[in-house]
């Protein structure tokens, strides 16, 4: 089996035999896979009237556990966007009735974002379709191959300093 990256590597080996292009094969495939995945993941979100970033924020709140509430700062850390961007996104989600925002009574400078009942319903409905879509995408890989790939990608991400967000603890329990 040959993919598009194989052709690129073949060309580099012919033109620059003094350089080993093997790293380009790994990075190129990860980059191409990311592009394909971004396209493939849109469908279930669009079917539920949402965008991927909306699902990401709602899912972050949902998996935080009842009462499905996090500080705005925790959402910034989880989403890797600026505080200005998260404010805009929370405004848009609140306008749809999927989240509510309130001042933290323990810290008046902090805002707590809570998943509404409608937000919980939409994220739960979307989650089932999203996971089914991911299963479809990965169907060519055996469960063992999926586990190997996940382990290798985890190792790579950790080496690039990707760590879990420490601030993702529910607020107001």
UniProtKB/TrEMBL annotation:
SMART domains: HTH_MARR. Coiled coil: none annotated. The keyword Metal-binding does not apply. One of its GO terms (molecular function) is DNA binding. InterPro entries: HTH_MarR-typ, Tscrpt_reg_MarR-type_CS, WH-like_DNA-bd_sf, WH_DNA-bd_sf. This is MarR family transcriptional regulator. Residues 23-158 form the HTH marR-type domain. Keywords: DNA-binding, Transcription, Transcription regulation. PANTHER family: TRANSCRIPTIONAL REGULATOR, MARR (PTHR42756), TRANSCRIPTIONAL REPRESSOR OF EMRAB OPERON (PTHR42756:SF1). The keyword Transcription regulation applies.
């Amino acid at each position: 089996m040959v993919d598009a990256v194989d052709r690129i590597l073949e060309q580099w080996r012919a033109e620059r035999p003094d350089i080993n292009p093997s790293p380009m094969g790994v990075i190129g495939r990860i980059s191409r896979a990311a592009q394909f995945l971004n396209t493939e993941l849109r469908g279930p979100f669009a079917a539920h009237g949402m965008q991927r970033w909306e699902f990401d924020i709602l899912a972050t709140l949902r998996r935080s556990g009842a009462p499905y509430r996090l500080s705005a700062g925790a959402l910034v850390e989880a989403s890797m966007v600026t505080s200005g961007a998260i404010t805009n996104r929370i405004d848009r989600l609140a306008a749809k009735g999927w989240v509510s925002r309130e001042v933290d009574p323990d810290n008046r400078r902090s805002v707590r974002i809570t998943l509404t009942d409608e937000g919980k319903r939409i994220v739960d409905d979307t989650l089932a379709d999203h996971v089914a879509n991911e299963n479809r995408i990965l169907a060519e890989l055996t469960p063992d191959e999926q586990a190997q790939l996940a382990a290798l990608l985890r190792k790579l991400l950790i080496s690039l300093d990707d760590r879990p967000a420490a601030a993702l603890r529910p607020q107001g329990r």
